[in-house]
Design brief:
This protein has 15 helices and 31 strands. The protein is of the alpha+beta class and 574 residues long. The two termini are 21 Å apart.
Length: 574
């Protein structure tokens, strides 16, 4: 690739739209351009990275025994209605009508399509196990598209679907995918941590996520893990053994009474005013859960976990009521809701810890008023579940010995044991050995190709630019001719360019009529693993500068040794 011939529109200045370092570098390095919110054009360098990652994914998927197919992007809404996800996913699912006013959907994922494919085709268990995958664009109208390719509305995913006759078969298929994923990320030069995750709207019971650990804002996910036994889960899912249990359990229960709490809406304000610790207060948080309104009760010093609350409420997701909704449901402004006298049609879900509390403070469902010395006998609880988030510093739920630590991660892939959710909804069965009809048992496995590319940048960069791992770099080396206006230098660089290509080494050749400083700055920004500089000194000495992207200084290498060196690097690093 000659820079004068291809399209790499690097930028001098930071684009205002970029919130994250990796996003900024993709824009500045001429990798991507935004079309509209969450939707990007992949330019030549980006396309090469996508190819590299996709090829690694393909090789490992094929090795695992899966087969590549391509499913359509545009689907009839009917299939999504049959599984119920047309309604459950909500506005994240992109919808449109065709010219006959038939409702259509842009694929957000492909469980529906692959299951509908196989329901008509597979007759016998003898055709199983089967794993089909694709590398395909996905559409999701994310509520907050952000961070460039990290959370796009259109993005590239590898999605695989396994089909088995029984749970034992699924276990094997799942393990094969886990092994393939570990191999994929390792080959991409990315260290990942595999964590337990919630199954959410996907259905099923068992899921893991593969996380790239970063200590930047780009780590959207919080991971709690145990340094002792290796337990690791994302925050949505993580459990813990609390360090500070209920306060003063030996107290005798008293009768409750109202107190004036003028304008005090937060836990901090109320507990400071009443001079009690936050763990003596029960927060009442009001949510919409499908058709219902739910009041969630948790201890004042805890954080609500909306995923756990959704699971407890038996809905795909919950949404906090707005101020008007809270007022309508409780008769009081935000900050004064409480369980005592809660309307009968509102279901009250309490966190496990609330069950151990005595003489606590709650909102009074009236403005500027709380109740003190409330006890469990004073109100109705419809369901008890753990609906609080686990926290760093609490004990590991598995080994119970060590305290959990918190880290940030980027989810680059995940694996789900789906079970029969989709085969049941769509009637996908096979006959077993005894001739009985059995539902297909499924797993589903995703890797965000475009998110993985950006995660690699978030992980590997310095303040000058990207530092790609060799296996997924758009090219191995960046050839800089310090003065492309000088005929002798230019001829030497052209020759080296040809020789590199003949040797099968991918090279980006900066043959522009630009100042050396500009060329070096762009080379650092674009971030190829090696830079070769053809300069005047080399014409006399027969040596060119060779520099690894993160090395402090270049070394002088004999022209004839450059190619063998790079070939050796290629061999050892990919
Ligand atoms: P998240 O929790 O980040 O929204 P998800 O659980 O919705 O992810 P899946 O539906 O399992 O993700 O998709 C599989 C993979 O696709 C994810 O692991 C991630 O790498 C990628 N992915 C998901 N949503 C996006 C997006 N909006 N933009 C880019 N990649 C995405
Ligand atoms: Mg999502």
């Amino acid at each position: 690739m000659r820079m004068t011939r291809t399209f790499i529109p690097t930028l001098r200045d930071d684009p205002a739209e970029a919130e994250l370092v990796s996003h900024r570098m993709l824009l500045r390095g001429g990798y991507i351009r935004k079309l509209t919110a969450g939707i990007y054009i992949y330019l030549p360098l980006m396309q090469r990275v996508i190819h590299k990652i996709s090829n690694i994914v393909r090789e490992e998927m094929d090795r695992s025994g899966a087969f590549e197919i391509t499913m359509p992007v545009l689907h009839p809404a009917e299939i999504w209605q049959q599984t119920g996800r047309y309604y459950d996913i909500g506005p994240e699912l992109m919808r449109l009508d065709d010219r006959h006013k038939r409702p259509m959907v842009l694929g957000a994922t492909h469980e529906e399509i692959v299951t509908s494919l196989l329901r008509g085709e597979l007759r016998s268990y003898k055709r199983l196990p089967l794993n089909l995958y694709q590398i395909q664009v996905k559409f999701r109208d994310e509520i907050r598209p952000r961070f460039g390719l990290m959370r796009g509305r259109e993005f590239l995913m590898k999605d695989a679907y396994s089909f088995d006759i029984d749970e034992a078969g699924l276990d094997i298929a799942y393990q094969k995918m886990v092994d393939a994923y570990k191999a994929v990320f390792k080959r991409c030069g990315l260290e990942t941590v595999m964590v337990e995750s919630d199954t959410g709207a996907m259905g099923g019971k068992f899921a893991h996520e593969f996380m790239v650990i970063v200590d930047t804002e780009g780590g959207e996910a919080t991971i709690l893990s145990c340094p002792e036994c290796g337990y690791a889960a994302n925050l949505e899912r993580a459990e813990s053994i609390p360090v500070n249990g209920p306060a003063k359990t030996e107290e005798a229960p008293q009768s409750y009474s109202p107190v004036e709490t003028p304008n005090m809406k937060t836990v901090e304000e109320v507990t400071a005013f009443l001079n009690v610790p936050a763990r003596k207060l029960v927060k009442t948080l009001m949510y919409r859960a499908g058709e219902k309104v739910v009041a969630a009760l948790i201890r004042g010093d805890r954080q609500i976990n909306e995923t756990k609350l959704s699971n407890a409420a038996g809905v795909p997701m919950v949404e906090m009521l707005d101020a008007a909704g809270v007022e309508q449901a409780t008769g009081a402004p935000v900050g004064f809701a409480g369980p005592v006298g809660m309307r009968a049609d509102i279901s009250v879900i309490a966190d496990e810890e609330v069950k151990a509390m005595i003489n606590f403070v709650v909102g009074a469902n009236a403005g500027d008023r709380h109740l003190i010395n409330v006890n469990l006998t004073d109100f109705r609880i419809d369901k008890t579940a753990t609906i609080r988030s686990a926290e760093a510093g609490e004990y590991c739920p598995r080994c119970r010995k060590e305290r959990l630590i918190s880290r940030r991660g980027i989810e680059v892939g995940n694996t789900f044991k789906l079970g029969t959710k989709y085969s049941k909804a769509l009637g996908a069965t096979v006959l077993d050995e005894a001739g009985n009809e059995r539902l297909l048992i499924m797993g589903s496995y995703g890797i965000g190709i475009t998110r993985t590319a950006q995660a690699a940048i978030e992980r590997f960069h310095d303040d000058r630019g990207i530092a790609w791992p060799v296996p997924i770099a758009p090219a191995l080396c960046h050839l800089v001719c310090v003065n492309s206006g000088d005929a002798a230098l230019s001829a030497a660089a052209d020759k080296l360019y040809d020789d590199l290509q003949k040797a099968g080494i991918e090279v980006l050749y900066d043959d522009r009529q630009e100042r050396t400083g500009v060329k070096f700055a762009d080379a650092d920004l674009i971030g190829l693993p090696w830079r070769i500089t053809v300069g005047a000194k080399g014409l006399a000495s027969g040596m060119w500068e060779l520099k690894a992207r993160m090395a402090d200084a270049p070394e002088m290498v004999l022209a004839g040794e450059i190619i063998p060196r790079l070939l050796a690097i290629l061999k050892s690093e990919s």
